[in-house]
Design a protein that fits this description.
Strand content: under 5%
Largest sheet: none
Number of helices: 15
CATH architecture of the largest domain: Up-down Bundle
CATH class of the largest domain: Mainly Alpha
Shape: globular
Structural class: mainly alpha
Distance between the termini: 38 Å
Radius of gyration: 22 Å
Amino acid sequence: MEWLKSVERKLLLSRLLTRSGDQAWGFLVPIVLIKIFARDSLPALIYFFSVLLAGVLITPRIGRLIDKTARFKLISIGIALQMICVTITLVVMAVLDGIHAGEFDRWDLRVVLPLVILVLTGVTTWVGETIMDITVANDIVPTLIPADRIGAFNSKFRQVDLLTEIASPVVAGLILSLVPLSYSSIGLAIIWLWNFISYIPEYKLLKDAFALSPSLRSEKIKFVEANKVGIWRRLIAGWPEFRRQKIFLAMAAYSLLWLSVLSPHGVLLTAFLKNAWSLPEIVLGVFRGLGAIFGLIATLLFPAILKKSGLIKSSKIFLTFQAVTIFFAFICFHLNAWIGHAAFLGFVLLSRIGLYGYSLAEAQMRQMYIQSSHRGRVNGTASALNSLATLTLFAASLVFSEAEHFGALVSLSTLAVISASLMVLCWKPDLTDANSLGPPDHPTPQ
């Protein structure tokens, strides 16, 4: 039993190290890039859209790599990719900051070439993070932790994620706020050092965990089959079965929620708050951390509401709450006084309760009402729809790239959330409601 507790501590500490660095880096890179191109946000938006698009298209190839590579070698590859790419990203962004790239024409070679390098390193960093997430959370944990302890361990695992999601952006924002405005790359260098140092003990901790299980050293993880198929093939092949599901409208409504920019974690909203409203980095960090706290509130409320109202009614309650709070956020956004801006941020935070609550309900519907023989294809199609919605949102942001046009994206987001809510409110499914199964962990719109 003592060795098992030791394994759990090593895995949790490894998760704390890697997630804290990832969260801080993921928060700070967009802000520094936005500061560099303060006069013209289009280059930064092109970077984010390109990384997102490449990430979606390259996912099937990651699956093939994982299937062909031994587990511990995957760990080494994932950590090495991140170490190399965050270093290159730091150097390139320091160069852009040093030459005042924001004052150049957006198509100047001195801007285009570094952006291309940043896209390549951004995608490669994402590949490394994806490899680590799949290998650790979906393979090492269920292999090493016994079935009677895995539920409690997963709760601790999730708590570590939420802790880093709350604390890391605040700390990163404070670091950047303490650095003089003209030396923002110094703040990024501090976060790079935080990241870089964390990779070494992470590698050692995971190596120790591998030493406790011979099967981990000899076997290869099998990637989820549905994710080994490209987004368009998943949509085409899986759409007929997806459409036949009794919970089709609930899944389609969930995909609509990915069309919203009104998220404390979103790059687009962060860019607007920094450029147009000139919010300091520490405020942006606190705002992002509060978003995670409000999401945690939803996970605490969900079991009680589920028990009282049932699954379908609970989903309608949470999504209606999100729609109402987003509608008020939309109204407050157009108020020019500071109190309107504060109320806008407050309603965006409140909307996270509805979003996370509905995501838990929708996940449980998938678990209960999709036949096991169809889960791979149906969930693969749902994932592809979510990715397509995210790409559509970033494509719209390229069209409305100026700060004065951000209101159009707010309107699109409000329309998407209210439409999703009306779809679910009008939905009268012929289902046997049940609430005995707990929701699985799954991605939530950022």
